[in-house]
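Quick check before the chapter quiz. The format below is the same one you will see on the exam, so make sure you can read both the input and the output lines.
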Amino acid sequence: MEGERRLVIDLEEELAFSNTIDVFEEEIQWMKISIFRLPKFVKMIKPSVFTPKVVAIGPYHHHNNDLQSLEAHKKRALYKFLKRGVKSLDIYVHEMMGIVEELQCSYVDLQEGWKDQYNFIMLMITDGCFMLEVMRNDAYHCRYYHRNDPFFSSHAMMHNIPYMRRDMLILENQLPILVLKKLVSIEMDVDEEEAERMITELVVKFFVPRLYNDKDDLTEFTKSIPGIHALDIYRRSQLFISTKTPQFPIRKPPAPVPNFPVMRSAAKLHEAGIKFKRSRSSAFTTISFDSRHGILTLPEITVDDSTEHVLLNMMALEHIHAEAGSDISSYVAFMGALVESAEDVQLLRRHGIVKNGLASDEDFSRLFYNISQEVIMYQGGNYGSMMWEVEEYCQRWQTKCCVYLQHAYYVLAAGFITFLTLVSTVVSFLQWRNV
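Here is the expected output.
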C-alpha cells in the first residue's frame, strides 16, 4: 500500500508541474511552428527522399558532412546579392533580428546551437539569399556570375539546378517564407505584402513554370492563402483550380462508415461500363464522376523520376501539419487503387490522363502502389462521395447487365426452340413427301 501511495503522489506532482504551462500559450507556440522534423516511422517509408543530396537549407541538415562543399557557394551568393544592391549587411541583420524569435519558433526541436540568435540569423540570411539567387537563376541573372560558375551559370541551370530544386522541396529542408519576404522587402524597398506576392511568383516560376506562364492564373494564385514555405506553396499549386475551369457541384460528403468502398482499378471500372475523360485542370482535386453518363473525369498527371520525391514530401507535410489538409494523400491513395497494373496505366494514357516518363507502365503502377501503402484515405469529402457514386454505378450497371443477359438468354432460348420446332416440321414434311 505504501508503494502505491508513493506512486500516486509522484504522478500527481508530475501532473501538477505539467499543468503549470498555460494551455493558451502552448496552443500559440504550436501555431507558430511551420517546419517540422519528421518522425522516424515516416522517414522509414523511403529515407532517401527526405534527405537532401546537394544543399542544406535551414538548420536541420546544416552540419551534414556530405553537404558542406556547398557552404562556400552560399557565401558567394550572399556576396553577389549584397553587391548588386545598395543596402548593407548591417541593415539586413538589424531587420532580421526584429523577427528572430518568430523565426526560431517556426522550427520544432531546434538544436541548442541555433538558439544563439546571431548564429541563427546569419544562417537565415545566408540560406535565404542563396535560395533567392538559385530561384532567380535565368538567362538574364546568369550575367552576374562567371560563365564557368559551377552553380549560377547557364551550364549550372541545366546540370546542377535540377538537383537543388529537388532538395528545396524536402520537408526538413525549408526556410520560413517570412525570411524570403523580409529579404525581398528590404532589397526592393517594398512593403511585405508586395514582397510576399513577388516571392510566391518566384517560387511558382522556379517550381511550376506551367502555372507561371498563364498570367491570369498566376495572378489569381498569388492572391490565395499565402504559403508557409516553398514546399507548401508548391503543394498549393498542385491543388489550385482557376476560376476559368468549370466548377463541379459540391457533393454532400457521406458520413464515414466501416464498409467504405474500395476503389476498383481503371480496367475493372472500364469493364463495368465507366468511361474516362481528362479534366480541363491539372489540379489533383479535379476528380469528378458523372453518375448519369458513367464518366469519370481525372486530371492529367506526368510522372517522372522526381514524382515520388515530391509526392512523399507533400504527403509528409499533410501528415504532420494540422492545417495542411489531406488532398495530396487522398489523391495518392486513390491513384494507388486506380492504377493497379500496367493495363490500367495504358488505358488512362489512351484517354490523355497519364504521361509516363518512367521506364515502363509497370514502374508507373508500382510507384503509386508503393507510396500509397502507408496512406489512409479520409472517408468523407469529395473523394469519399465520388467513390461511393462510382461503386453504386458499377453495381447498378452490373445489375442491368445481369437482367439484360437473363432476358437475352430467354429470347435466344425461345428462338432456338422455335427454330428446332421449324426444323422438325420441315423434316417431317420431307419424310411424308418421300413416302
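If your answer matched, good. The chain has two domains: 26-239, 266-388.
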